[in-house]
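tool_call: predict_structure(chain=1)
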Amino acid sequence: MRELTNELPKPMLLIEGRPILQHIVEGLKAAGIQEFCIITGWKAEVIEAHFGDGSRWGVQIRYARQTIQDGTGKAPEYARDFVGTSDFLLTYGDILVKPDTYQRMIARWKAGTFGGLLTVTIGEDVTKGGLNFFDGDFCLTRLVEKPSPSQLEELRSSGWLKPGQPVWYNAGIYIFNPVLFEFTSKLQKSPRGEYELTDAISAIVASGRKVAGVEIQGRWVDVRDPEVLASLQA
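tool_result:
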């Protein structure tokens, strides 16, 4: 986001006059979620000053600061005490969806016994995110994080990617039960030098637990750069 985040953390950039993160909090509240833990980092005090204890929105908000930015795989652990023994929804602070997306996720979660749930969308460049494969019940079978062009060619030649079939891009919103922490605690740094949440998800699948998929319907926006932000102001 370049100079746009000199004074503001990215989730506090405005869309339609409200911070991105406020859109998320309001959407989650509409889905029935009332207890939040926001993991902060850069300019944490800006987020904490805006949201306070959450009472303005009729919710309860706690905070935890990730002082070392070492990847998505370690960030959830800062909420471990907050989560306790409960299931929890996890979202990045720059992903915008319609509130009914959260409701559909919760309904799918309650309909089965899962170790996790992840959302996906189509039409995105999977080299910038996660590529997901599912079985007939739309449960995850394989996840490839930021595949290179050569990896994509290998997946085509080996039959994983088939012409005419959807290419499922990781949409960055999840539901987990606390078993997630068993796997994040064992993570090793990826070749990119970070702890990857997707590696923990792959380990959950390898352990024999099911990870359900939910396709995003309607709006899904990753506010990843100034151009995307500007398009949302139009």
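agent: The chain is about 30% helix and 25% strand. Proceeding to next step.
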